[in-house]
């Protein structure tokens, strides 16, 4: 890399950081709106599913992956458990399906990721009743991971009407307005109704 290439790269990096700010702020706005219209669920906390935060509670470690400094690649926003229905609800954002679109699973080699022009950004609505993900790398977790790619938009882990995990994915570009967000939530609820399982509830009049 010569000086001109480095200067152009750093320029693109500055633009990328500003775009990341706008992207993350937009995702947060979507979550805030959903939090405001849900009945029986409220935002509790979130965590990255792709890497680890680059800190050990007191200090950021330099031996962490670069991905550990970019936790929003795959991030779960958890909206708790409805005490009346025992429904757990989370929203998972996949900023780039590229890693999940290829069979080559090397997080540190982004050249192996799927083509960025073919990958998408996803929002996944996920509910569970008397069932939830307990450990990483279990058979259930690995099967669920398919929904993180462009190849699948549904996970059907329904054992029966009283024990299940169900998820449906939507392209992030379909969350342009509040009306769009609500339409996607209503579509998810209708899918659950069609499968005869309990789901989330949207407050009346909102």
Give the termini separation.
Answer: 54 Å
Order of secondary-structure elements: HEEEEEHEEHE
* Sheet/helix structural class: alpha+beta
Instruction: Tell me, rounded to a whole number, the average pLDDT.
Output: 93
Strand count, sense and barrel status of the largest sheet are: 6 strands, antiparallel
Summarize the structure in words.
With 206 residues, the protein is of the alpha+beta class. It has one domain (3-202). The chain has three helices and eight strands. The protein has a six-stranded antiparallel sheet. Strand 3 (74-81) and strand 4 form a beta hairpin. The longest helix has 35 residues, at 3-37. The protein is globular. It starts with a helix and ends with a strand. The mean pLDDT is 93.
């Amino acid at each position: 890399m010569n000086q001109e290439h480095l200067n152009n790269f750093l320029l693109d990096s500055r633009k990328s950081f500003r775009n990341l700010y706008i992207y993350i702020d937009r995702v947060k706005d979507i979550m805030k709106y959903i939090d405001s219209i849900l009945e029986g669920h409220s935002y509790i906390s979130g965590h990255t599913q792709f890497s680890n935060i680059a800190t050990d509670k007191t200090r950021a470690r330099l031996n962490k992956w670069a991905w550990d400094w970019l936790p929003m690649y795959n991030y779960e926003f958890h909206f708790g458990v409805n005490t009346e229905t025992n429904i757990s609800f989370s929203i998972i954002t996949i900023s780039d399906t590229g890693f999940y679109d290829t069979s080559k699973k090397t997080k540190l080699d982004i050249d192996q990721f799927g083509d960025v022009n073919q990958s998408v950004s996803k929002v996944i609505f996920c509910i569970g009743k008397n069932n939830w993900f307990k450990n990483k790398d279990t058979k259930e977790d690995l099967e669920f991971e398919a929904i993180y790619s462009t190849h699948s938009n549904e996970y059907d882990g329904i054992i029966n009407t009283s024990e299940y995990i169900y998820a449906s994915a939507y392209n992030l570009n379909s969350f342009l307005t509040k009306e769009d967000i609500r339409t996607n939530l209503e579509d998810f609820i209708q899918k659950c109704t069609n499968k005869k399982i309990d789901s989330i509830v949207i407050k009346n009049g909102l």
